[in-house]
């Protein structure tokens, strides 16, 4: 199987699995229990994991709240932040190319009378910062902006540093879904002004069912109050209750540690693999091929291609026992891509588009073989 669907999920790194196993076997204590070693050991290990996640993102450890993943983090921030504002003032601004866990949450909030603005995007799915500024300059206190850092279907990057800056100038809270960029792009220098961030371990060779919501402190060192999505015993600094998923947290920590250690190398490998893939695709399919993604300002390793006249579902099924490919997000795979639609593609064009997403574990040989298979050689 040639696995080219790394935006959907990635394989667990062997070091991650090794780090997790003791916490499913002998180290089974509950980190919230007190006064005995079995609990204290796990507590120490989860705090180390928190440190590694914080290091990868460029925030403090106590700003990391473990959740079940980005879907939960996105829900928690959008619902929980708007809940703290006066009902009459609530305003949410998102782009049309957000992940379904943001778009569907925005629609839910709209049904609860939150005013939602859906920003248009350019032909590669990026937000226009001038349009954003025009919207937020008139916003009241009580507003939240949520813009995806890098898109899961096209790889397009928004200029998060500048967007965060704008939100700071106009005193509006800013959240970003960084699920697809962590581990592929070094985000640490663009975090100034980002107040909330969502991320997920399984996109960076960690386990599924664990992620984090970053809640950064303000200039006075205070974290914004966010109404929890999950109430209970007050774990995770009172932001997210429930017994910690310790083995998953340890796995996330290890994946983050490796991701940071190898960030430059990973970025470079993905660029090289992508450029080889693009060259090969052009060689084989120049007559029917076009790219829905930009070739710069993007996450390396994610491309979105249109094969005119080809049905994407048919193609993916045909190759399904040898290659893993996607027509778009796995989280909304039953519907035509809202991301490509908002970039201006027709239904017919969407139906002939395929997302190819690489990891650093893919090889040049796999790419060559994949292109041959695609060409029916
Ligand atoms: N946001 C983006 C951009 C994603 O790509 C995904 C995963 N497809 C999610 C959110 C949801 O993440 P999780 O699977 O951790 O819930």
From TrEMBL:
Keywords: Aminotransferase, Iron, Iron-sulfur, Metal-binding, Pyridoxal phosphate, Transferase
Boundaries of every Aminotransferase class V domain copy: 2-370
Gene3D superfamilies to which the protein is assigned, alphabetical: Aspartate Aminotransferase, domain 1 (3.90.1150.10), Type I PLP-dependent aspartate aminotransferase-like (Major domain) (3.40.640.10)
Cited InterPro entries: Aminotrans_V_dom (IPR000192), Cysteine_dSase (IPR016454), PyrdxlP-dep_Trfase (IPR015424), PyrdxlP-dep_Trfase_major (IPR015421), PyrdxlP-dep_Trfase_small (IPR015422)
Catalysed conversion reaction: (sulfur carrier)-H + L-cysteine = (sulfur carrier)-SH + L-alanine
MF GO annotations: cysteine desulfurase activity; iron-sulfur cluster binding; metal ion binding; transaminase activity
Required co-factors: pyridoxal 5'-phosphate
PANTHER family, A to Z: CYSTEINE DESULFURASE, CYSTEINE DESULFURYLASE FAMILY MEMBER
Protein name: Aminotransferase class V
Source organism per UniProt: Paenibacillus mucilaginosus (strain KNP414)
């Amino acid at each position: 199987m040639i696995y080219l669907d790394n935006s959907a999920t990635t394989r667990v790194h062997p070091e991650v699995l090794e780090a997790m196993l003791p916490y499913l076997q002998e180290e089974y204590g509950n980190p919230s229990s007190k006064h005995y070693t079995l609990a204290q050991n796990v507590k120490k290990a989860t705090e180390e994991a928190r440190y590694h996640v914080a290091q990868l993102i460029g925030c403090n450890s106590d700003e990391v709240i473990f959740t079940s993943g980005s879907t939960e983090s996105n829900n928690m921030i959008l619902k929980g932040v708007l809940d703290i504002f006066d009902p009459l003032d609530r305003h949410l601004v998102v782009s049309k190319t957000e992940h379904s866990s943001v778009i569907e949450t925005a629609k839910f909030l709209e049904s609860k009378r939150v005013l939602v603005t859906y920003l248009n995007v350019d032909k590669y799915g990026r937000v226009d910062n001038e349009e954003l500024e025009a919207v937020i300059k008139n916003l009241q206190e009580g507003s939240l902006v949520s813009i995806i850092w890098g898109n899961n279907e096209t790889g397009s990057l928004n200029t998060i540093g500048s967007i965060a800056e704008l939100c700071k100038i106009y005193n509006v809270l800013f959240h970003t879904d960084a699920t697809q960029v962590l581990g592929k792009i070094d985000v640490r220098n663009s975090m100034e002004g980002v107040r909330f961030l969502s991320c997920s371990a399984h996109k960076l060779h960690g386990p599924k069912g664990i992620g984090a919501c970053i809640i950064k402190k303000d200039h006075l060192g205070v974290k914004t109050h966010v109404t929890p999505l999950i109430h209970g015993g007050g774990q995770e600094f009172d932001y997210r209750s429930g017994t910690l998923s310790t083995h998953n947290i340890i796995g996330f920590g290890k994946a983050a540690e490796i991701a940071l250690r190898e960030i430059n190398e990973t970025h470079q490998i993905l660029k090289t693999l992508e450029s080889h893939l693009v060259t090969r695709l052009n060689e084989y399919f120049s007559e029917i091929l076009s790219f829905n993604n930009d070739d710069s300002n993007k996450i390396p390793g994610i491309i979105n291609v249109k094969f005119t006249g080809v049905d994407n579902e048919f193609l993916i099924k045909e190759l399904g026992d040898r290659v893993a490919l996607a027509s778009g997000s796995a989280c909304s795979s039953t519907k035509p891509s809202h991301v490509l639609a908002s970039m201006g593609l027709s239904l017919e064009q969407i139906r002939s588009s395929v997302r190819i997403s690489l990891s650093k574990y893919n090889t040049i040989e796999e790419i060559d073989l994949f292109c041959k298979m695609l060409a029916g050689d």
